[in-house]
Design goal:
The chain is 44% helix and 15% strand. The protein is α+β, with helices and mostly antiparallel strands. The chain folds into 2 domains: 83 residues; 129 residues, 2-Layer Sandwich (Beta-Lactamase). Helix 3 runs parallel beside helix 6. It is elongated, with a radius of gyration of 30 Å.
Length: 224
């Protein structure tokens, strides 16, 4: 009688295809031992299975905790967005609207450095502080942006609008302002931080897009 040699993969395949093997060989199951994953002693197969299940449970608990944390952060951001939007809607004085936008970003969203410039405004609003002259490069940049930019402050001209001329700004977010689907921007919001990770490259911009969209809609009443 010829015996066919088999390797570990063959054994694993056989056990996978015959899940009731140990039910009919209970005595064998009781004698099988495997090395403990965190020590040199041998443990029974039952103990090892329990250890594997505990490890999986710990992994699931960590993932659940992370999902809960993300959910709480999203709820917090949604509540802040609601408060800020409400302030914009309640602002009945167009002359104060730009101030409400900037102040809300600074206080409600706790952004340490905020600046904004608007151009192409109606004659009655050209005297606003946010209507100061803007370099052509900044306008060209705003027009070219399809979504907000986040990343290091690489000597952006718009960063000079921030406190200290942006000298203390290590990360920055740029939000173009548009009237609806108009491809041309009529303004630019600049968010800055001394923390290099606050507006890091690669971070999601969906929430910043909402902020830019709401601000653009609110401020569009000042534009021509």
């Amino acid at each position: 009688m010829t015996r066919h040699s088999c390797d570990a993969d063959d054994v694993a395949h056989y056990l996978h295809e015959n899940p009731d093997f140990f039910e009919s060989h209970v005595d064998l199951l009781a004698t099988v031992t495997v090395p403990h994953p965190h020590g040199g002693r041998a443990i029974s197969l039952h103990e090892r299975q329990l250890e594997v299940l505990r490890e999986k449970l710990r992994s699931y608990e960590m993932k659940l905790a992370e999902l809960v944390r993300i959910g709480q952060e999203n709820d917090d951001l949604a509540e802040k967005l609601h408060r800020w939007t409400r302030q914009l809607l309640l602002c009945g004085e167009p002359q104060r609207l730009a101030e409400v936008v900037v102040d809300g970003l600074r206080t409600i969203f706790c952004v340490p450095q905020v600046a904004m410039r608007l151009w192409g405004l109606r004659d009655e609003h050209v005297g606003l502080e946010c209507a100061q002259p803007v370099a052509v490069d900044a306008i060209t940049l705003a027009n070219s942006m399809k979504q907000p930019f986040c990343g290091p402050n690489s000597d952006f001209h718009a960063a000079t609008w921030l406190p200290e001329g942006g000298a203390l700004t290590h990360s920055i977010a740029l939000l173009p302002l548009r009237k609806g689907v108009d491809p041309k921007a009529f303004g630019l919001i600049v968010l800055g931080s001394a923390d290099p990770e606050r507006f890091r490259s690669g971070m999601g911009t969906a929430f910043l897009e909402r902020i830019g969209g709401i601000a653009g809609a609110a401020l569009s009443r000042l534009a021509e």
